[in-house]
């Protein structure tokens, strides 16, 4: 009899894990969601064997429970599960991007003899919902597990083996608070900075509309994550406040260094700050490795300013079966050469597009060249 996995939440993350389970394992997948339409879509896509809006029905007799819900709902759901009769060999995990508070809440299950292991697949997408789910969303990304010290290695290996097969991700074990500090620095803090910068420039724009009119490639690229879901990020920041406050203090110190150097017109210090930044930036992993911030695959193309040019270019790529996800005409090119920004679904698509467009005589630019 195949093992049974209940996935609670049929959104982007839950749906993508479900698709991976059905494609690469022999488990039976039960989907839980409050919205019938999400369950129907998941079933039509082959992501689940059956779905239900009743939590007790979803988890009855299952071997694994994956809570794929927003962080505040994860804690609430753990408490709901503690009131149900779960199988003695059941392992419960989650996909939340903060871990300390969730793992602390998970102790209520551990005290009842149920194994709880915190989890965080560190990949995402600009899109959301079951309709955006894909079985390879987590391929080559890191998948962090944060087991308690007393968790048996057998349980960790059981869950890890299942997740590795389903997601094709690279499993990493971390202590919950260490996870929250790392993710706070590389994901949560950048979102705060982006939102702050967008709000600051937006305030200036109320008095002078040129701030938005001249906002070109550099500003847009730096602040693209400033358009993220407000409710989701409210909850993430509130559940990771212990890690974020020291990180914000360190960020303020960094800005004071820049302010002092600029105010004192200290050319050497300004150059040193940017030199160190450039060197550290070049040490980051290759762009092709998936990370916690949703990747974007773009190129910029020079085209003639005449009727039909954009239509001709898109037709060329269409004939090669290369799908363009987004097109942006760059009216201000202070930092970026080219005039047409093309976005694609994958790195393979952008490489194929660049290769073909250059072969067709176009001048094409990529950030990492």
Characterize the structure shown:
With 369 residues, the protein is α/β, with parallel strands linked by helices. It folds into 3 domains: 4-174, NAD(P)-binding Rossmann-like Domain (Rossmann fold), CATH 3.40.50; 179-260, 6-phosphogluconate dehydrogenase C-terminal fold (Orthogonal Bundle), CATH 1.10.3660; 297-366, VC0802-like. The protein is built from 14 helices and 12 strands. Strands 3-2-1-4-5-6-7-8 form an 8-stranded mixed beta sheet, sandwiched between helices. α1 packs across α6 (153-167) and α7 (176-205) crosses α11. The longest helix has 30 residues, at 176-205. The radius of gyration is 23 Å and the shape is globular. Mean pLDDT is 90; it is low at 332-337.
């Amino acid at each position: 009899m195949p093992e049974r996995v209940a996935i609670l939440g049929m959104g982007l993350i839950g749906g993508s894990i479900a698709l991976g389970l059905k494609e690469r394992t022999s488990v039976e997948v039960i989907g839980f969601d409050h919205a019938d339409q999400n369950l129907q879509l998941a079933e039509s896509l082959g992501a689940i064997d059956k779905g239900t809006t009743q939590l007790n029905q979803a988890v009855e007799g299952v071997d694994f429970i994956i809570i794929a819900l927003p962080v505040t709902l994860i804690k609430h759901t753990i408490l709901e599960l503690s009131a149900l009769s779960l199988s003695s060999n059941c392992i419960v995990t989650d996909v939340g991007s903060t871990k300390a508070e969730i793992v602390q809440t998970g102790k209520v299950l551990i005290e009842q003899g149920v194994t709880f292991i915190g989890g965080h697949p560190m990949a995402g997408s600009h899109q959301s919902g079951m309709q955006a789910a894909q079985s390879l969303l987590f391929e080559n990304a890191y998948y962090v597990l944060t087991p308690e010290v007393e968790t048996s290695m057998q349980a960790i290996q059981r869950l890890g083996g299942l997740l590795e097969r389903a997601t094709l991700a690279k499993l990493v074990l971390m202590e919950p608070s260490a996870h929250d500090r790392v993710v706070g620095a590389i994901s949560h803090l950048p979102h705060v900075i982006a939102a702050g910068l967008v709000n600051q420039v937006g305030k200036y724009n109320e008095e002078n509309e040129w701030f938005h009119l001249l906002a070109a490639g550099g500003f847009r690229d730096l602040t693209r994550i400033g358009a993220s879901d407000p409710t989701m990020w409210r909850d993430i920041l509130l559940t990771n406040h212990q890690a974020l406050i020291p990180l914000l203090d360190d960020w303020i110190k960094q800005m004071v260094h820049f302010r002092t150097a600029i105010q004192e017109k200290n050319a050497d210090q300004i150059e040193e700050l940017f030199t160190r930044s450039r060197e550290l930036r070049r040490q980051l992993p290759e762009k092709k490795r998936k990370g916690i911030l949703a990747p974007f695959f773009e190129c910029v193309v020079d085209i003639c300013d005449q009727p039909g040019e954009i239509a001709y270019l898109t037709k060329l790529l269409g004939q090669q079966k290369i799908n363009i996800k987004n097109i942006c005409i760059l009216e201000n090119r202070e930092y970026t050469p080219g005039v047409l920004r093309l976005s694609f679904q994958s790195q393979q698509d952008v490489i194929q597009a660049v290769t073909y467009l250059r072969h067709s005589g176009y001048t094409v630019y990529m950030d990492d060249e």
